[in-house]
DNA sequence: CTGAAAGCGCTAACAC
DNA sequence: GTGTTAGCGCTTTCAG
């Protein structure tokens, strides 16, 4: 390593001096350009680009009390649902002059509270978050009592501003689509149910739909660890009376379910149909193409970011009553077909 | 929306007043706790937690000239390679008290320069970046002349500090593995070659290995747009003398190549073997499991973050000569097999 | 249309 | 071991 040179970024006073104006004028050039004479403005701008001047963000933040940074709290970037969503957030914040600060919680509830604290200490102007369970979140309860604007994504809860998709209704539709295709032996597969209110909600939709159709679902297949997920699912599929359809609480699990089926010498979809949930982009390129509840992941992020930024601009906090429910689309694809004839 | 309450965060002077000490003492409690008497420290800490005090980051940054924020510039979060890497970065920065600010460039070269400028204006202490082409990057050339520490990930170039993997050697090994399996008709598939020095490097390794084996490769299959990728690959596979092996410049393309093969009624791997590059986690759960050059994506991010943070701590900039080449591992999996017998 | 001056909240000499 | 003071770079009244 070589040691760093000085090469300090110039301050507003140096620019002012070189341009023969006062610091206030330079400041105005950036914040209220119309209020400075064109000639003056051009001189200042020239000097700025000459010195590569960019206003110092912390000084401005300190003065204005606005950082132009949004904090983002999400479980993990390893699930494409969340990286797609973060990409959506990034693409709407950047052109509006906001930066983002993501923090991942790895589905650990206490990490959520810490993330919020840390982000607030960093002075973010607002927060976009995906929590494990909005209803029981202590961190969220505290957040609600602060004045900092925030929006939840994916979670849905009456007392918080949310951008979400009706997971229960979607799952209901999935089950009915399967019923139409002649399936009766349907099982649901999910991760740790208590770790995600989305999964719970989807499960509720599943149970409700099955009851509605007077069908007894297989016992829920809970696969807490991805390492063993495939084996656990395969174990169920290898039983004689195995389900003819596996409804998964997310796409990642569905992909593993497909693998479990192949390992169990079952063809997808001829022997077993499989559905996912989330609509990650990759699902469309798989063979068989994954049937899933396609959520507009990027749009959810964009929508949350827009809402938050607008709220901040109006000095308000997003109101729970204005929560947004985005439409889902069920993508029936190659991983689903008619139920096989009864043996 | 309801309007925000005041509920201002307390400042250090209020805490000082309530604790009956001076602001400096409060400051010391946070920055040099040993230099303040235990009793005093405890009082201060009590008052702090009582008021929910956290030092204001912009004030501290302004004063110390260190923001504890790292900028991250990468092409997109939609490719799991980069989101896995970012997750790696996030997991090493967070416990060390650094926040990250990611910006995506969508593979647009000019966006890289802008991202760097913006991030510097936000006052980041250092930069981790993945650029399109390190050799030709004007933005990188400028960056090198500044005193801000930075590390490149995935890119490799002699005059920049890089954390990377030997893409050419890896590709060389892949080709040789294919040769050992009896393949002779081997084609490479890549995205826009000029948009990525990684792809170029991998292609170079491919060409070199083929030449070394006295084999004429198929013409490079360049698939500029993902929308048409599958059809373009299928077109090649439908020729009578189609390749028996498709070597892809990344995993996302390989997944599409698998789909193209199925659409062309070719079995993978019986009729055509397919390899990817990157080692995205999902590849292991596909059926057939994707053969690929597994890069330690998260570790690459971690390694870059550690290097950068250490450099910052020592008031130095990472030196190109200390660049790190991480080992790759070729994962031979179900998507590859012996070449089919000649017809 | 422009300048002077105060102060955002914090840290780091420097005193005591 | 603790307090006093100055100042980081900027914006924003308030004068002119």
Would you kindly provide a written description of the structure presented here, covering whatever features stand out?
The structure is a homodimer. In chain A, the strands form two sheets. A six-stranded parallel beta sheet of chain A has the order 3-2-4-5-6-13, with helices on both faces. Chain A contains twelve helices and 14 strands. The N terminus of chain A is likely disordered. In chain A, helix 1 crosses helix 3, helix 8 packs parallel to helix 9 and helix 10 crosses helix 11. Chain A is of the alpha/beta class and about 350 residues long. At the A-B interface, strand 1, helix 4, helix 5, strand 3 and helix 6 of A face strand 1, helix 4, helix 5, strand 3 and helix 6 of B. The structure holds a DNA duplex (16 and 16 nucleotides).
